[in-house]
Batch of 2 targets.
Target 1
Amino acid sequence: LIWQAATLVALLARLAEVPAVAPMILDAPPAGTYYDVYAYRRGGVRFTKEPPYHADLVGLPAGLLLQLDSAGSCMALRTDLARQVRYTEEEVFVGLSRDIYAHGGSLWLDSGLVCTHPAD
C-alpha cells in the first residue's frame, strides 16, 4: 500500500473518537477503483470496484465517519483493543473485524482518508 504519513497520523487521531478506523483503499490512478472489495463491508454488503463503491457512501461528505462490518488492508486500533483481537487464518482482516466487535469495539471508515494499492 501507498500512504502519506499525514493519513496515518489522521487515522491515529480518529482513535480519540472511535475504537478502530480504516481509510478508503483505492487502486492507484488512473484506475480510481476500489481495491479491497473482499474485506470492506457494511450492512452485510461488500464494497464494489466502481464508484460509489457502496450505496451508503452516496452523498456522504468526505471525512464523515461511517460504521463498517469489516475492513482490510490498513486500519488503526486503540491499543487496548489491539492487544485483545486476532486475525483468523481463514478470513484475515474480516476475522479481525469480527473480533473487534466481539471484544466490544466498533470499526469505522474515514471516507476522507485514502491509501492506494499500486498497479500490478
Target 2
Amino acid sequence: MISLNIIMEGDGAFEDWKDRKVHHIGNDAPPMRIAALPHGMKSGRTSVMIGIELPDKSVVMAEISLRLLLAAAAGFKAKYGDELDG
C-alpha cells in the first residue's frame, strides 16, 4: 500500500518535482474519482481508491487506507478549521 505524506503547510511542498513532466488537469477535466473499498486492506479494514484521468486518457489510480485519509483530514481540520461549517 502506498504511503501518504501529510503536509500541513503546502508552500514549496512540490519543489522537488519542479523538473518533472506535469500533466495539468483543468476545470474542464473529468471529475476525479474517490471510492471506498470495504475490506480493501489485508487486515479487512476499508481502503480508498483515488482515480484521476490525464489529458492523454491514461489514468492514475492510488489506493490508501481510509485510516490514513481520515488522519490527513483530521490534521487539516485541526489546523484550518471545519470547512463544512457554514
